[in-house]
Amino acid sequence: MNLSELTQKFNAGDIDSKWQLAFYYLQNPTPEFSEKDALKLCRTEAKKGHWQFHVILGWWYFVPDPKKAILWLQEPARQGDVWSQIKLGLLYSSENHPIQDYKAAYWLQRAADQGEPRAQSLLGTLYRRGQGVVKDIRTSLKWYHLAAEQGDECAQGFLGILYGGGYEVAQNLDESLKWHRLSAAQGNEISIKVLQELEFPANTDQKPF
Asked: Given this model, what pLDDT does residue 207 score?
């Protein structure tokens, strides 16, 4: 749908076109529809209970004002929006506080239970560190494997490191190479470096094994 069609639907009161236009103009403001206008629209519609606008405001404040982002992301996260759940997990875990770590684990667990690989990978890291949860390497490996099997390059890289070094798991160099090759094929710099050091060049055109 082009901008003209979105504008027509927006003028007719279509809610989906409203949040799409607000998001568009936050990234591409014009004299007729400024950044300030887009934020005002988002706040107005968010107060009406339209959770999509909460997501946009959470995205907008994520870097410059994490506390505001947390406030805006609560409602869509409660409604099951995976993106909001992951962002809350990241925001809470970055505060380095036990209570906030617990909240991070809670939201990442909810996203991971929906099958989201990024959340599964992040949750695996929390269990590996014992951050917000009881440290449990088996549970960590479970989540890393679920994420890695869906193509998450970070989880693949972590599995490569864990199996390669025998860190709290039985050392398995075949498994390590398998996961490093998959991760390197997606451009993971750590896995690429590991393979280069082992003289196994990461060839993205070549299937691992």
From this structure: 39
Contacts of 155 (CB under 8 A, 6+ apart): 117, 120, 121, 124, 143, 144, 145, 147, 148
Q: What is the pTM of this model?
A: 0.87
The C-alpha atoms of residue 35 and residue 48 are separated, in whole angstroms, by: 20
The C-alpha atoms of residue 102 and residue 209 are separated, in whole angstroms, by: 39
The H-assigned helical ranges of 35-152 are 35-47, 51-61, 66-78, 82-93, 98-113, 117-129, 137-149
The token pair at 155 is 């989880």
CA 30/CA 127 separation, integer angstroms: 46
**Cα Rg of the chain (Å, integer):** 21
Distance CA 186, CA 52 (A): 31
DSSP 169: S
The pLDDT mean for the chain works out to 91
Q: What are the pLDDT digits (tens) for 139-184?
A: 999 999 999 999 999 999 999 999 999 988 999 999 999 999 999 9
